[in-house]
What does this fold into?
Amino acid sequence: MRDLATLPTAHLHVHLESTVRPATARDLADDHGVALIPRPRAFAGFAAFAEANGAVRNCLRRAEDFARVAREFCADQAAQGVRYAEVTFTAASHGERLGDIEMPLAAVLEGLAAGRAETGVEVRVLLDHPRRRSVERFARTVELARRHRDGGVVGVGFAGAEEYPLTPFAALVGEVADAGLHLVHHAGETAGPDSVRDALTTGRAERIGHGLRVLEDPRLVAELRDRGIPLEVCPSSNVALGLLPSLAEHPLSALRAAGLVVTLSTDVPAETGWTLPGEYAAVREVHGWDDAALAELARASVTASFAPAAVRRDLLAGIDAWLAGQP
Ligand SMILES: [Zn+2]
It folds into this structure.
């Protein structure tokens, strides 16, 4: 067995607001007089998670707060062997809350640039929009993504309550695609295959965040497989948020056996306490994947990314070298 700490990885599904170090969250909570909610062993459903996560989000107020967590994200990713990350950030939500639509994203991009200079980790940004929020909010998100495309924003995506259909956003989705931005949506996390189909058709998704229950619909599986749409699988998050009873019950191996492109991410590492190498180790230990299969998983995460060609080449060469090395 090779050392997973030396496997070079790409991390595609991770929310910046869910990467805040506990010590940093305490500092910021003290600064702003916010009460944090202690991390439980498991959340009693999505609402309990959202409440704890909301308290941390509420600690992010000044430009220096956003820049700090972005910079620390780079350091933490580097320490875990992550060479490239696409981090999700709810920029317009913070902008509206703080009465300055530009500041949060500008500060995050500044922090990521500083982090890259210190660690060499390449990070791109995806701006997410909770489905239950207004079309006007999504329009502001799209506008922010457009304005900051050269600064590292590569796409936008829908997240949150999956019972809300994407139809109201259809016209703006077309504009996103026309602007050369990518579309990556959460779907099939809290709802079934219908939400994935909606993300593919109305949302024009290039990747699907989660897709836990796609195997219930063979036609959907065939479409995902034929189009090579990657799934961003986040097992520890699914268990911590109460969507699955245990890691062993995650359909990861069945998704792979069905010929789907599977990638591996942490989603909400600050809330779960997991790292990306920890996720790979659990796939090895719980699902019995050998090193060749783990290398394939790492490769899929690179090829499914929106990383520049040179970064992809380096990462793929690093993964090949890891597999060619002595176990
Ligand atoms: Zn997520």
Notes: The chain has 15 helices and eight strands. Strands lie at 9-15, 82-89, 122-130, 153-159, 182-187, 207-210, 231-233, 262-264.
